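Protocol step 4 of 6: structure prediction from sequence.
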Amino acid sequence: MHGGHGSLSIWFFIGVLLTAYGVIITAAGIYELSSPPANPPVLASLHASIWWGAVLLVIGLIYFIRFFPRKK
């Protein structure tokens, strides 16, 4: 699905976005872990933001590496 000269795959940009969101969400989860809120949610012990951020980060890196533009 790579186009002609000078074009980039949309999947490359999706990988960049997923990686960026994964970093932001994981960082927010780690910050929340280090300084918990006064009234934590019911399932705060599961640390969903850390897990979800890590999943997005891994998927984003897979797309980023797979569709990285290379010279042929």
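Step 5 (inspection) to follow. The chain has one domain: 10-66.
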